[in-house]
Amino acid sequence: MQENWLLFTIIAGVSSVAFNTYNRGTLKAGHDSTVYAWLFELIRCIFFALLIPFSYYLVATPKNILTLILLGLSELVGVYLYMKMHAVTELSVSSIISRFRVISLPIFAFIFLGERLSMLQYVGIMTIFTGCLVVAGMKHVRGTKGIWYALGFVLVNSLSTVLMKSASSVASIAIVNTAFSLPAAVLIPVIMKNSLSRIHLTVKPILKSTLFASAFNILTMYCLVRAYQLASASQVNSVFQGVTSLAVVVGIMLFNEQDHKLLKVIGALLTTLGIILLV
């Protein structure tokens, strides 16, 4: 079964590239990013909740229930930062800055899960860090809101990944993903300003595109949780980030993000090399 985690992770990564690309195209058109985030969280929550009766498994201890609750709350914060990141930042930039997850996740995994890395993997981390600095050093990127949204997302997502790895061993994929999505699906309309009017104005124009994007996201989340059941969080996340580095090329080709193209490509190559060393 050991080879299966790699297949699941590659599928998750390819699906994530499609999801990110579609999100960037939709949000670049000026649609409400918060309503968009809520809608795909709701769709994902409903989908996996409907699967629970067919794949129910949960070790219902207080610790495990708390892990599932914290997982959902981390996604509530993470999805807000994620959508803001894509709304104000070029896809080819945000996708490379997001590689900081490969630095922060092993630290979180070491602290909370006891996962340890080899010396070669630490070299990979430094290579990725160098690639991120290449992109962060671009004049039009430094100090912008997009960078802060991306870095905030990295930290929250790293914590969320550790929680998901823990939850994947005590609950079914359907339960993990339902817990992951439920707080955001329920609470975003509550905390969003003028939620009723914004939802009314936004949902109809983006419903078809959100359904399409959600299909990619559902596939990503299913495969990721399955991969976490089979391998370490650091291992899965490293390969996942390597596959999603394709988003840099997609951003350049589809969205005409030509500024500092050479630096973006160099940054992507460095981060990919570091990810290979981490596997």
**Helical content class:** over 70%
Low-confidence stretches: none
Q: What would you call the shape?
A: globular
Number of helices: 12
Q: What sequence of helices (H) and strands (E) makes up the elements? A: HHHHHHHHHHHH
Broad structural category: mainly alpha
Radius of gyration computed on alpha carbons: 18 Å
Main beta-sheet annotation: none
Distance between the termini: 17 Å
Total number of beta strands = 0
Nearest-integer average pLDDT:
83
Which band does the percent of strand residues land in? under 5%
Q: What can you tell me about this protein's structure?
A:
This protein has 279 residues and is mainly α. The protein contains twelve helices and no strands. It has helices at 4-28, 33-51, 62-88, 91-97, 101-113, 119-136, 145-168, 173-191, 195-230, 233-244, 246-254, 261-278. α1 runs parallel beside α11, α5 packs antiparallel against α10 and α10 runs antiparallel to α12. The longest helix has 36 residues, at 195-230. It is globular, with a radius of gyration of 18 Å. The model has no long low-confidence stretch (mean pLDDT 83).
